[in-house]
């Protein structure tokens, strides 16, 4: 009897491709219409009371903020619901029996399912990013033209007009903006891997969703809580909560490590080294949760 | 592939216990079950609902880990992935991904078994023809009847030409014609040297296709042996005669009584309702053609 490899890229790609098709046929991409409405609506926000350039920059910040909020929300909801649904449904429908009765190691099955969800979120984000960049660019160029016209009428030099245009474009479509989108994708991947871990021991989709949401919320606020208790300690007020936040940081992901969108919305540049660190943290978190999922799932009685 | 001397299935003192609701007491679903299926044999495991048939099958397929004892498939521990290379499994009332067509389903399972390209396409064509789903091959499984799903299940179980086929209630939900086709298929597979391990409530069906039968009750194997050993009544002799008149029959009765025996029954043998149905269905099919 020939040996089956511990892990196989071919088998994983078959399961991932199948998961992607399954989710696409569930018509999950309909949410893109809602996203388009949010991005288009954010165009109509007008902050002209703040004064010329400042108002222009503020308008673009609002637009980017709305875009990133929608991308974050949709990618996380998609990653969470899709992952939470897949494993319990396969067990309930007994389709898992027929898959695991083939020469398919359980790790291959888990990675395949996770990658299928990741592929779905990536495609969704690419479409959202493309739509967002297109609308943002149209808005930026319209603002540049409007400001150039205004400044020309005020008799400003070409240099001044050019520097204004550059300042506005800094708030538009940049590589840093794409780095922000990558950070959104990484967060969704981490959420999917947490949902995968929870679904290996949970008995229902609703339980998986609730537990994952709790973990994500802890992950979102733990850095602030730690900073607060550290501040308290520096003022001489020791609290056992500080020790607790340290333990929490070992068990739960720190989503602040992956959050670079706030800087991107404010027009800050994202360096390659920062993007590399964020990517490494995201991939590491996802890998840890996937390995933990496998530990639980490898001996699960079906 | 393992040598001929290795049993296709070897289960030794299998025990499977599940924790009860409050984990205070363990519930024993399978209690020291042992069985051996030689290569090319058709083995039927029968027993009432909840007797441990499905748990035994699951342990054999590595879906549950034995509490104690061992399960081997062609000499390989059933908990190892390698053991599943030559195994096909049809679960009871199989559900598949409703978004897929029969063709896509078979392609998916074939690719999981490492099959590709032309080899896979040819195998899919052959199996779809074998289970008579040519007209529905491009339809999504969401619109399939129970019997059609059962046939897709059978096709997926055979996709990689397994040497051991594990069938849990293979004819559940299938009409008598389909049921007969599955029975014929089991005979065909047996001729090809494929080992079949099946669970069924339809005792007549088990009697018709199996070489060896095991009877399981409350998790315990209560009887096991070849079909002829288990079903023959040693004190009785059966004579089947064609075209005999009443006078000759009276003489036969007399001879039997002289020899110290007793004629328990005589009369025209009845064909089964199933055979009658198949005959009518075939006739109607021919007339329609």
TrEMBL record, chain A:
The chain crosses the membrane at residues 28-45, 65-87, 114-138, 179-198, 205-223, 278-297. Signal peptide: none annotated. One of its GO terms (cellular component) is plasma membrane. Pfam families: ABC2_membrane_2. Keywords: Membrane, Transmembrane, Transmembrane helix. The keyword Membrane applies. GO terms for molecular function: ABC-type transporter activity. This is ABC transporter permease.
UniProtKB/TrEMBL annotation, chain B:
InterPro entries: AAA+_ATPase, ABC_transporter-like_ATP-bd, ABC_transporter-like_CS, P-loop_NTPase. Residues 9-243 form the ABC transporter domain. Transmembrane segments: none annotated. Coiled coil: none annotated. Keywords: ATP-binding, Nucleotide-binding, Transport. Gene3D superfamilies: P-loop containing nucleotide triphosphate hydrolases. Signal peptide: none annotated. Belongs to the ABC transporter superfamily. This is ABC transporter ATP-binding protein. It comes from Rubritalea profundi.
């Amino acid at each position: 009897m020939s040996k089956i490899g511990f892990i196989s890229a071919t088998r994983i790609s078959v399961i991932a491709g199948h998961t992607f098709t399954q989710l696409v046929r569930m018509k999950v991409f309909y949410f893109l219409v809602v996203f388009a409405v949010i991005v288009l609506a954010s165009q109509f926000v007008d902050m002209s009371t703040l004064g010329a350039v400042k108002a222009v920059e503020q308008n673009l910040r609002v637009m980017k903020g709305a875009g990133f909020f929608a991308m974050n929300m949709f990618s996380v909801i998609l990653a969470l619901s899709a992952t939470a649904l897949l494993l319990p449904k396969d067990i309930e429908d007994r389709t898992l029996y027929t898959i695991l009765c083939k020469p398919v190691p359980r790790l291959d099955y888990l990675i395949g399912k996770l990658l299928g969800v990741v592929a779905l979120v990536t495609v969704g984000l690419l479409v959202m990013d493309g739509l967002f960049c297109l609308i943002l660019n149209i808005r930026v160029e319209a603002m540049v033209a409007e400001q150039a016209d205004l400044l020309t009428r005020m008799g400003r030099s070409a240099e001044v007009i050019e520097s204004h245009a550059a300042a506005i474009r800094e708030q538009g479509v940049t590589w840093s903006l794409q780095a922000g989108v990558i950070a959104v994708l990484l967060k969704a991947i981490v959420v999917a891997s947490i949902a995968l871990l929870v679904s290996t021991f949970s008995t229902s989709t609703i339980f998986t969703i609730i537990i994952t949401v709790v973990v994500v919320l802890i992950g979102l606020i733990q850095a602030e809580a730690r900073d607060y208790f550290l501040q308290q300690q520096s003022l001489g007020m020791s609290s056992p909560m500080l020790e607790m936040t340290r333990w929490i940081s070992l068990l739960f992901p720190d989503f602040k490590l992956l959050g670079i969108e706030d800087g991107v919305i404010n027009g800050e540049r994202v360096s390659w080294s920062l993007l590399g660190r964020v990517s490494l943290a995201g991939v590491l978190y996802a890998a840890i949760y996937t390995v933990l999922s496998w530990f639980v799932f490898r001996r699960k009685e079906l | 592939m393992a040598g001929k001397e290795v049993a296709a299935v070897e289960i030794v003192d299998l025990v499977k216990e599940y924790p009860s609701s409050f984990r205070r007491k363990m519930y024993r679903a399978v209690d020291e079950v042992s069985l051996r299926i030689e290569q090319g044999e058709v083995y039927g495991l029968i027993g009432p609902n909840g007797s441990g048939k499905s748990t035994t099958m699951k342990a054999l397929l590595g879906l549950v880990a034995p509490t104690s004892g061992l399960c081997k498939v062609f000499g390989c521990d059933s908990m190892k992935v390698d053991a599943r290379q030559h195994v096909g499994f049809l679960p009871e009332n199989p559900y598949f991904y409703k978004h897929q067509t029969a063709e896509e389903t078979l392609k998916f399972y074939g690719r999981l078994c490492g099959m590709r390209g032309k080899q896979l396409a040819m195998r899919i064509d052959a199996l779809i023809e074998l289970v008579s789903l040519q007209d529905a091959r491009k339809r999504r499984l969401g619109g399939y009847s129970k019997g059609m799903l059962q046939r897709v299940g059978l096709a997926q179980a055979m996709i990689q030409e397994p040497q051991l086929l594990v069938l849990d209630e293979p004819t559940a939900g299938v009409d008598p014609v389909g049921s007969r086709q599955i029975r014929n298929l089991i005979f065909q597979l047996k001729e090809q040297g494929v080992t079949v391990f099946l669970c069924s409530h339809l005792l007549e069906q088990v009697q018709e296709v199996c070489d060896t039968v095991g009877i399981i009750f409350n998790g315990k194997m209560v009887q096991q042996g070849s079909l002829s050993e288990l079903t023959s009544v040693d004190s009785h002799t059966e004579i089947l005669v064609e075209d005999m008149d009443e006078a000759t029959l009276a003489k036969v009765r007399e001879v039997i009584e002289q020899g110290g025996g007793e004629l328990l029954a005589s009369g025209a043998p009845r064909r089964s309702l199933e055979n009658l149905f198949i005959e009518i269905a075939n006739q109607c099919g021919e007339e329609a053609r």
